[in-house]
């Protein structure tokens, strides 16, 4: 090894001033032990450093020395031991070497440790976040499930309603068709007159089956507390044929009335709710004769 | 009358090994100002420095058998303990690099402000020495030696390439030696 070159390389300055990383620090110590010249150079440098450091010398506050001597005298007693700094207390941690320069690695280590800490924290946060999201989506999915089920139920209900509706609609249609097709049915159109002009009710009567139906095609809704009543005219007498509704809602509806054996005509009066046994003649609304 | 007694290096080491309180007392009297100066320079905190100084002397007392003459004089060993203990404290205080630099910028010595009273063993004037270093050289030495910054840390903190930090630091130390040896 070129000792002179090594000495002038500047590494010894760094060594003496404690600026070398641990690994290089050990290397220099090995070389110092091997080469007296290097050792001498190091000693020179150490003296320089001692002188340099003396420049900053500063008398410490009085009293420390006495306190130290006190601790030293009592160091073998538990009381004295407790006065020692933690790392020096018995059982003394003799393993810690003083020659190791400042735990240089620590600087790096702590920064990598920090990075790991951050990574760990990030992972934990991500994990917690995913757990939360899981809960969120899980509750959302169960929510969807229940909503889906209620939708299915609603649809089934609607389907059932539709079916029953179409059944009744079908029945009514069939009834209507029957009436239209059965030649026995007689159609009597009752038209309003006077104050009731424009009102139309069609009665259809089957003298064979005696069935009576009516369609209140154009009849206003009865006033509150009143109801329309159909009368069969027979032997100049009015016979009750049942009560029925007026209004736009039933304008298309075929309403079944009481059967009639024989009829010369039909009349409609406005009666108190529930109908009357005898017609109130001044409330006659519409009437028509059956065409022979 | 320890004051008038001087010991040879060998006597000091021997006395320390023998746990001679007189030797301990002598070491304290002769070296505490230098060690205290180093600690204060590292920590910039006199209250804390007093505690550290006490710890340092207790370590010297307790770990005397670990002193290795081959590695340098007793004073060099004591200096290492003082610097390393102080820098450990500095680090355990979780100082950030910026704070370390801040400490240096605030340092009265660098700003040429009134100097703290110190006991210079050397006759060479303190500011005279430092005046011969450039401000950058002083900063480099302070960061490296007193704040325990690695050359990588200095490179990052001062935004100077690592190679340049190494060269300049070496030059600073060489310059320092030249001044001291004049």
List the defining traits of the structure above:
heterodimer, A: 292 residues, alpha+beta, Arc Repressor Mutant, subunit A, 3 domains, 7 helices, 47% helix, rod-shaped, B: 182 residues, mainly alpha, Rna Polymerase Sigma Factor, Chain: A, 2 domains, 70% helix, DNA binding (chain B), RNA_pol_sigma-70_dom (chain B), RNA_pol_sigma_r2 (chain B), transcription regulation (chain B)
What report would you give on this structure?
Chain B: Belongs to the sigma-70 factor family. ECF subfamily. Chain B: This is Sigma-70 family RNA polymerase sigma factor. Chain B: One of its GO terms (molecular function) is DNA binding. The complex is a heterodimer of chains A (292) and B (182). Chain A has seven helices and eight strands; from the N terminus they run αααααααββββββββ. By secondary structure, chain A is an alpha+beta fold. In chain A, helix 3 crosses helix 4. The termini of chain A are far apart. With 182 residues, chain B is mostly helical. Chain B has ten helices and no strands. In chain B, helix 2 packs across helix 4 and helix 8 crosses helix 10. The radius of gyration of chain B is 18 Å and the shape is globular. About 9% of the residues of chain B have low confidence. At the A-B interface, helix 3, helix 4, helix 5 and helix 7 of A face helix 2, helix 3, helix 4, helix 7 and helix 8 of B.
Summarize the helices and strands and which ones pair or pack:
The complex is a heterodimer of chains A (292) and B (182).
Chain A lengths: L2 H6 L2 H6 L5 H13 L1 H19 L9 H10 L4 H6 L20 H78 L4 E7 L7 E6 L6 E7 L7 E9 L2 E8 L10 E3 L7 E8 L11 E6 L3
Antiparallel strand pairs in A: 1-2, 1-8, 2-3, 3-6, 4-5, 4-7, 7-8
Chain B lengths: L8 H9 L3 H23 L2 H17 L11 H19 L4 H10 L1 H4 L14 H6 L3 H12 L4 H8 L3 H20 L1
Helix pairs in contact in B: 2-3, 2-4, 3-4, 8-10, 9-10
InterPro entries (chain A): Anti-sigma-K/W_factor (IPR051474), RskA_C (IPR018764)
GO molecular function, one term (chain A): sigma factor antagonist activity
GO biological process, one term (chain A): regulation of translation
